[in-house]
Every structure is written in C-alpha cells, then in structure tokens.
Amino acid sequence: MIRLKQIVGLKQLALAAAAAGWMTAAHGQELKIGLPSEPSAMDPHFHNLTPNNSLLRHIFERLVDQDETQQLKSGLAVSWRSVDERTWEFKLRSGIKFSDGSDFTANDVIYSFCRAPRVDNSPSSFAIYSRAITDMTAPDPLTLVVTTAGPYPLIPNEVSTIAILSAKANGAGAVTFDRQECKGVGTYPKTEAFNAGTATIGTGPYKLVRFTKGDRIVLERNDGYWGEKPAWQRVIFRPITSAGPRVAALLAGDVDLIENVPIQDLERIKANASYKVVQGLSARVIYLHFDYIDDAPPGVEAGGKNPFRDKRVREAISKAIDRDAIVARIMGGVAVPAGELLPPMMFGANKDMKAPKADVDGAKKLLAEAGYPNGFTLTLGTPNDRYVNDAQIAQAVAQMLTRVGLKVSVDAMTASQFFAKRTRREFGIWLAGWISDTGEMSAQIKPLAATPNKDKGWGTTNPGGYSNPQVDALLDQALGTIDDEKRAALLAQASRIAMADYGVLPLHFEMTTWAMRKELGYTPRVDQNTQAMMVTRAVTAR
Fold first, then answer.
1. Rg of the Cα trace of the chain?
2. How many other C-beta atoms can be found within 10 angstroms of the C-beta atom of residue 123?
3. Which of 248, 287, 341, 448 has fewest C-beta within 10 Å?
4. Cross-strand bridge partners of residue 188
C-alpha cells in the first residue's frame, strides 16, 4: 500500500512538473509558433517573400515601420520630411546598437541600400524599392539624405521594406552610395552566411540562435534592444507545411499558436474552450497571370499561336471563373472575391470595383470570336503549399474553364519548384499570390502589371511580359505626384485600365487566420505577418 502511494505521488509530481514547464513556456519564457510556409533563407535581402519578411522582422529593422494596417510609423528613423521635390531627410534614433554591440549609424543604412538590389540568385529582388534613389549621403551619423531623380512621394513607404544590416559587422568601411557600384562596401556577405548565423546581426528585438531548414528556427530575446522588451525570452518557429499536422501540433500542445488555420478545422477549434481564433482581411490577392510571348507558351496547344495575347481570350477566361463559388466552396467563406489587385479600403484602390460575375455563355462567345470555338489545350501551373488551398483553387479554376470548352490540366508543385519554374517562363498560365509590401496600389501594379524594366525595377513578378503603355504612363505620373489625393486617383485609374484589359486576373483576397491557446492574443495584420513581439498573454489572478 505504501509502495502504491509512492508511485501515485511520483506520478503527481511528474504531472505537476510538466504543467509547471508548460506554464514557464506559455507565460513569459518560450513561445512556439507553427508556420505553414518555411522562410527560404535568413538573409533579409534574398527573397521578397512573406514568410521571409515576417520572420526576419524579429531580427532586422527598417528606417520606417508599419503597423498592423500598414500605416507608417517611426522605426530606426524618428522622423522624416521632404526637403524639396527631389530630397528627403531622415533623422535617426540615437543610442541604438546592433546585436553585436556596434553602434547604428546612417552608414549602415547606406550600406544596406547598396546591398539589397545586388544579392546573388535572388528569386524576388528588393531592387524595386530602391530604384528611385539616385543618391544617399550622411551629413552626420544620425542624419540621412535621400535624393531622387524627380518628385517621388513613396520614399517613406519604400524604405519601410528594406532591412538594415551592420556595415561594420560585414566588413565595410565608410560607404559611398552609387547606383552602379557603391564604394567602401568590401565584399557583400553571401546568403549562406546569414543562414549560418554569422551575418545575422540586426537591431531588432530578437537574435538568431539556430536555423535548421525543415525543422525549426530558434530566436532569443535581444536584451540590448532599444525599444519595448518582448514578453517572450525564446521563440521557436516550426515549419509545419501540412495543414492537418499543424492543427494536431496546436491541440497536442507542441506549439502555442499557428498561422493559416485550415478552413475545415476552424469551427472545431472555435468550439474548443481551450483555444481561440482571430482572423482579418489581408492585402494578399490570389490571381491568374499569363505569358505574352509571341509563339505558343509552354503547356498551350492552340495551333502554334499564343491565345493569351488576345484580350478576348483573357476576358473569356475571367468570365468562365465563378469567384463567388471559389470563396464559398473552396475557401469556406474565409476570403473576399477580388475585382482588382488591392482591397477597396487601401490607398489607390477603386472603392467601387466589384469582382466580375461568372458568365459561361459570354465566355464561349468571346472564345468563338477570337477563333477558338472548340477551345484549346492549356496547363495551369500552381504551387500546392504556398497559399491557402492553392492547389484546390487551381483545380476549381480548371473545372470552370472546362465548362467553356477549354481542355485544362493542372501542374501543381511545391512553392520552391513553382517559383523557379515561373522565373524560367515554363508556364503559359499560372496561379499565384501577391501582397502589397507598402500598403498601396503602386506596390501591386509595379511588380505585376507594369512593363518589365530593370532600370525602373518594374515587372519583377511579371515574367510573362504583360505590357500596357497606358498603365505605365499613369504609374509614372502617379509615382511623381506628391499630392496624396491626386496620386491615389492616378493609381486607381491605372488599375482600372489594367483590369479592363484583363492583363492580370484577380480571384480573391485571402483572410488570414491564427489559432492559439486561449490565454494568448494577437491583432490580425493585413500583411499576414506573425510577430512574436505582438503576441500577448492574459494575466491571471494568483
């Protein structure tokens, strides 16, 4: 009997110890987050991709920050002003140090803007956000002067996208900005050095401890951080790309919070009193894009021609798609049908732009007018692990196109394979997603609907070469218009023209969902980022 009591007592002690361990983790020491997509690198300039940008904001900061609605707020710069139409002045915070103890100065900013557009093998470059800058100088260590070729009102928005590195830690001296080749930069660190942790030195609230691809990313609080100290001493990000195991990890207590809750599991988690779900509309649009090459693009059989060069074909494809049905059936209502590339409440969007309604008969008529009464054959490329239900959406689109006489197959693959193939122009038509980094319409038009132009940094995610001179002219005019109201109107007009030309076909805007233990809280962000320093916990009475 005494032996039995000892065994029971030991079990109770073990359970108490386990509970205490969880309390330590969940109440101020460690936060575990399950990610649906893994960052491709720890280099903040390597890949302009949401999983990368979201995680690396814990380590690296920007001159200007964004709140949860993508409104600008002070970051490493305490203030900024337009000195004249071509000149911006930024006043930097004093007393800030990098995680290696070195001082932050304007030289680090110049160095970072020199490196950002020059990263080897970047799948999606940040060059688009530095092209307008013709010069950067530092009159003193805490003042930065940015010069542009002409009026350019988006400088504060665009500098909010580029992470600041330590020039000293990466072997640079006094840096002189030059659009062709900056001086004094030494040898830029390779992406591999960031992955290994040797170059991952920032001013942010966390430091990188370990990046084990396919397993976990471990961050430790930066106790020398200049701003408000995060509640969590350690944050562990675990990539769990399959939806079922991600939910299972939450319910088993292996993680405390997950992104992108599978639609089929939302109600089950909401009904569980131990957990909560928060969700909000995002700025991410899911869209279809085309290759505009002269000859038939890959995967298309249409008598040797490229049918996508004909506006009637693109309009027919748009009319064939029932966006409402995709939102209701594939997305479970956790999305909003899209009529353009940015939600209507955001800067430069058309407030009255409605998503097109399905019109099967109209689509068939347009195809016949274009010379394809019997349709043609095409392959729709798509990732199967990057966006919410991406492969299922592609399958639904394929079925809808079949109803109007097109013969469609779907080529679904991992995101890494998809992005590489898209860059090599191996798709004639593809499904993908894009989110505005700056919270306004130019950040959608420039990469997706502007004519590719390396000097301007346009068309970086328009590998198919869509081009509309009217869109380009209005975009150019908008980017040189200081007045906010006039610039918004020009961007809205450019968007209307691109949409009327069916150059890019928006399908819907994602709503982002997070599920977490009931003690935790999180304010949804339109940029879909998960920021551990914004995860709160309820204080319980003792």
1. 25
2. 16
3. 248
4. none
DSSP E strands: which ranges in 347-440?
A: 377-383, 407-413, 429-435
Distances (CA, A) of 195 to 35, 152, 199, 328, 344: 18, 35, 8, 40, 38
Nearest by Cα to 510 from 368, 398, 423, 393: 393
Over the stretch 481-511, which tens digit does the pLDDT of each residue have? 989 999 999 999 999 999 999 999 999 999 9
Give 454's contacts (C-beta < 8 A, 6+ positions apart).
Answer: none
Alpha carbon distance 302, 289 (integer Å): 18
How far is residue 491's CA from residue 342's CA, in Å, rounded to a whole number?
Answer: 11
- Calpha distance 144→136 (Å, rounded): 7
CA separation for the pair 179, 459 (Å, rounded): 19
Q: How far is CA 471 from the centre of its chain?
A: 24
| Structure-block tokens of residue 541 | 């009475």
Q: How far apart are CA 357 and CA 327, in angstroms?
A: 13
pTM of the complete model: 0.80
Q: Which residue has the tokens 């260590």?
A: 141
Q: Which two tokens stand for residue 183?
A: 């001086």
Strand partners, 146: 88, 136
Chain segment 279-299, per-residue pLDDT in tens: 999 999 999 999 999 999 999
In degrees and rounded to multiples of 5, residue 514 shows phi and psi of: -130, 140
